[in-house]
Specification:
Peptidase_M1_dom; zinc ion binding; alanyl aminopeptidase activity; globular; metalloprotease; 874 residues; 5-stranded mixed sheet; binds zinc ion; binds arginine; 31 strands
Length: 874
């Protein structure tokens, strides 16, 4: 069942053209596929059979060069259709029937509300028709859709519309042609009664592109931001990478039932509606930001993914890591670059580092898989994005851009490996990147242990860096990585020193990228007057953990004086981690923990600093998450972490009441909300202040929250208030939640928020409430967003309640995974993540979590997706 990278072989047959015709109907859709096929192997050594992939298909007819194949010429097996002894080149016509409505896995052609749509990545096309469903088989597609005209007035497929017209019996048709060769995973069709929001973009060469966003009629008014983001993305890719769009039309369709975020199908993106729809009343600043990011991401795939695609699925990061990097850079240019970088690092550390440290750790380019959908992971996407960023850091922006140009020039129209990408970078940058390739092949998060030495007599300051990487599944030993370590030196007054490495002529810049290649390396800086404070890993130049024995004073100096915003933020986070972990130890030893005065004072200093950017300040004043704190513990103690972190929040809320109120008032809105008013940082800070004020649970604070909740003209403020109320043991809590539900019951996206607020409440009775919500008429196990908002939110974002010592949280999750297994295996598998961390907990919790994994594995009809993750986790 396991697929290995080393077993890759070129396809035996290639498909040149695909002509598809669909008689669309939610209950029974008939698909006729005419494939022009040509042999791709040396037939002198024997003619190989043609093996097509197919799942959940009813085969109706099979013709070769127009003649119905006799049964002995083919076999329909488990997941395949084999045609024996085919000629050198031929036309195969396959007719199959499928049932979109019964397709609850949401892979292939399925129904979402009133419409039909497809999701083919990674292996969904084989659920539509028999095909060589692998990315290195690229073909030109022509697609005809036929459907009932009144229920499906809109018929869309990839490429350009070539013809449309009416048919008898109230039906109609549309024919689409995509001139670009593409792998089957980029195929898409959509049919339904959809409103269409038009826009247009003129490319750098002066071509006009029609932009079309398709949504259900009721959502017509919620598309402006997506459209604007698309235009920004198109312009940005031209300016930053010289990449122009290549078809006459770019379509985006929003669907409510979607397994992932969105899909980059050629010319016809299909999106989870949460990444399209927004209005000030229903979407938060974060939602607006996420839409911009995902719209950008899918658009950027047109070049990094579609024009140049992956040879096989082991190369997934070739397109995903690179496109994540591109969307991060896009967002950084649209918003605040430092704040975006901090958010990206937070995400990497809270989700990818734990993955890399657990039983599901895998390299950015995995060696094997059972189910490829399980490898659409934080590692492949986000660590993969960091790997690209490191290339840019090592080569410098200019050479990196030249490398990108070379990559496009060499490989446009091809399906390639990661190696081809890195080779283009190596050639453009004139660098040897062979050691760098280890980032793709070795899993685990490297640790950099740094020590230093200052010799006052000679003025030499020496930094010694040792790298190591813990063992991960299948990789007990690691070879050293090639790591860019960006750094600077500060004197005690916080001034940046010009950096002069021994043996170099003149002092250089104040930031340098040291290149680590060996296990231990020393760097000697000359002309240093007094012992400096090292500012390390500027801009988080590598996805590593850094160990250096900073003193309190060092951290304060970096926090207030370093030129690098990431380092300033990080210094504060390190202080907060040290503080909270100290409190955790006190709590565990049953001593009375107390928050030291120094912490309160430095918090106050930051809070009242008028010069700082509000958004940055909000990041700096946000304590590390419970899950990040958990990562710092040998044996995770969820209750103690919760208590310690809450103690800090309560103390800040009590001691700095006036400062918090003032900071909050300074951020009070002066004009009606607009998502692009540049005040998102202000709103974040304001809501953060409110949450600190609410921590001690005073009546006064509850009053402020209720006032904000009632008066808000936008979802950011409304939800900010409701979130703190949801965690408060006060009568207003239910009142507010109830009012919110009544107001928004017809808006799916908002009701998702309503579910997750309750699921992530730290109140002791949360699990009981979650069980009640499972029975709520608006809970729908078939809708992935709803599952994520309740089951996912509770188990992944409510550590203290999920890790209930009696194991009730675990049993709940086990039950839901088993339920989802038969409905939507991809979503079931996604829900398993919390169980994969079982080794990090105490013996009692370990037993309880293992029991759930065993219970899941005992299920007789376990989907491959769930089986792989559960088995590897145990
Ligand atoms: N390529 C899409 C994106 O990142 C993700 C689609 C993955 N879908 C899946 N079912 N594995 O933009
Ligand atoms: Zn992607």
């Amino acid at each position: 069942q396991t697929v290995y990278q080393k077993d890759y072989a070129a396809p035996d047959y290639l498909v040149e053209t695909v002509e598809l015709s669909f008689d669309l109907d939610p209950d029974l859709t008939r698909v006729v596929s005419r494939l022009k096929i040509r042999s791709n192997h040396d037939r002198a050594g024997g003619v190989r059979p043609l093996v097509l992939d197919g799942e959940e298909l009813t085969l109706v007819s099979l013709k070769l060069d127009g003649v119905e194949l006799e049964p002995y010429r083919y076999q329909a097996g488990e997941g395949t259709l084999t045609v024996n002894d085919p000629p050198e080149s031929f036309v195969l016509e396959v007719t199959t029937e499928i049932s979109p409505k019964a397709n609850t896995a949401l892979s292939g052609l399925y129904a979402s509300g009133p419409m039909l749509c497809t999701q083919c990545e990674a292996e969904g096309f084989r659920r539509i028709t028999y095909f060589t469903d692998r990315p290195d088989v690229m073909a030109v597609y022509t697609v005809t859709l036929r459907a009932d005209k009144s229920s499906c007035p809109v018929l869309l497929a990839n490429g350009n519309l070539v013809e449309k017209g009416d048919l008898p019996d109230g039906r109609h048709f549309a024919t689409w042609h995509d001139p670009f060769k593409k792998p089957s995973y980029l195929f898409a069709v959509v049919a339904g009664d959809l409103a269409h929001i038009p826009g247009s973009f003129t490319t750098m060469s002066g071509r006009q592109v029609n932009l079309e966003i398709y949504v259900e009629e009721k959502n017509r008014g919620k598309c402006d931001h997506a459209l604007r983001s698309l235009i920004e993305a198109m312009r940005w890719d031209e300016e930053q990478f010289g990449r122009e769009y290549d078809l006459d039309t770019y379509m985006v369709v929003a669907v409510d039932d979607f397994n992932m975020g969105a899909m980059e199908n050629k010319g016809l993106n299909v999106f989870n509606s949460r990444y399209v729809l927004a209005s000030p009343e229903t979407a938060t600043d974060d939602d607006y930001q996420a839409i911009e990011e995902v719209i950008g991401h899918e658009y950027f795939h047109n070049w990094t993914g579609n024009r140049i695609t992956c040879r096989d699925w082991f190369q997934l990061s070739l397109k995903e890591g690179l496109t994540i990097f591109r969307d991060q850079e896009f967002s950084a240019d649209m918003q605040s670059r430092p704040v975006k970088r901090i958010a990206d690092v937070r995400l990497l550390r809270s989700s990818q580092f734990p993955e890399d440290a657990g039983p599901l750790a895998h390299p950015v380019r995995p060696d094997s898989y059972v189910e490829i959908n399980n490898f659409y992971s934080m590692t492949v996407y986000h660590k993969g994005g960091e790997v690209i960023r490191m290339l840019q850091t090592l080569l410098g922006r200019e050479a990196f851009r030249a490398g990108m140009d070379l990559y496009f020039e060499r490989h446009d129209g091809q399906a390639v490996r990661v190696d081809e990408f890195v080779q283009a970078m190596a050639d453009a940058g004139k660098r040897d990147l062979s050691q760098f390739m280890r980032w793709y092949n070795q899993s685990g998060t490297p640790v950099l242990t740094v020590s230093d030495d200052f010799e006052p007599a000679s003025g030499v300051y020496t930094l010694t860096v040792t790298q190591s990487c813990p063992p991960t599944p299948g990789q007990p030993e690691k070879e050293p990585f090639h790591i860019p370590l960006a750094m600077g030196l500060l004197d005690r007054q916080g001034r940046e020193l010009p950096l002069q490495l021994e043996g170099e002529k003149s002092p250089g810049a104040t930031t340098r990228v040291l290149e680590l290649r060996q296990e231990t390396q020393s760097f000697r800086f000359t002309g240093v007057g007094s012992k400096p404070v090292p500012s390390l890993l500027r801009n988080f130049s590598a996805p590593v953990k850094l160990v250096y024995p900073y003193s309190e004073d060092d951290l304060t100096l970096l926090m207030t004086s370093d030129s690098d915003p990431f380092v300033r933020w990080e210094a504060g986070q390190v202080q907060a981690v040290q503080l909270i972990m100290g409190l955790v130890r006190e709590i565990q030893a049953e001593r009375a923990p107390a928050v030291p005065e120094t912490f309160i004072r430095s918090f106050a200093t930051l809070l009242t600093d008028k010069r700082q950017d509000r958004a940055f300040l909000a990041e700096a004043l946000t304590l590390p998450t419970e899950s990040y704190l958990a990562e710092q513990m040998e044996v995770i103690d969820p209750a103690a972490i919760r208590e310690a972190r809450e103690l800090v929040r309560t103390t800040v809320g009590e001691r700095l009441r006036e400062e918090l109120v003032a900071a909050r008032e300074a951020c009070a809105p002066k004009s009606p909300y607009h998502p692009d008013d540049g005040l998102a940082g202000c709103r974040r800070l304001k809501n953060l202040c409110l949450s600190y004020l609410m921590a001690p649970g005073s009546r006064e604070a509850v009053g402020m929250a209720m006032e904000q909740f009632r008066g808000a003209d936008n979802m950011t403020d409304s939800l900010g208030a409701l979130a703190t109320l949801a965690g408060c043991d006060c009568p207003e809590r239910d009142e507010a939640l109830e009012a919110f539900y009544r107001k928004w019951r017809d808006d799916r996206g908002v009701i998702d928020k309503w579910f997750s607020l309750q699921a992530t409440s730290r109140l002791p009775q949360t699990l009981d409430r979650v069980l009640e919500l499972l029975e709520h008429p608006d809970f729908d196990i078939r809708n992935p967003n709803r599952v994520r908002s309740l089951v996912g939110a509770f188990s992944q974002a409510n550590q203290v309640r999920f890790h209930d010592a009696e194991g009730r949280g675990y049993r709940f999750l086990g039950d839901q995974i088993l339920r989802l297994n038969g409905i939507n295996p991809q979503i079931a598998a996604r829900m398993l993540t919390p169980f994969s961390r079982w080794r990090r907990f105490d013996a009692g919790r370990q037993e309880l979590m293992k029991k759930e994994l065993e219970r899941i594995l005992a299920e007789p009809d376990l989907a491959r997706d769930v089986y792989e993750l559960a088995a590897k986790s145990l």
